[in-house]
Specification:
mainly alpha, about 40 residues, about 0% strand
Length: about 40
């Protein structure tokens, strides 16, 4: 994300994020955002 790794390592980077439950983090973040939008529309 900061440009310190070559793009050839992108797939490995994504695997690292998934191993750290990044998918769950994104899911929770999106749920919170949707709740915020509904409450503040």
């Amino acid at each position: 994300m900061l440009g310190k790794r070559p793009l050839s390592e992108w797939d490995d980077y994504v695997k690292e994020l998934k191993a750290k439950n990044m998918d769950r983090f994104i899911e929770l973040h999106n749920q919170a955002y949707e709740r915020f939008r509904k409450e503040n529309a």
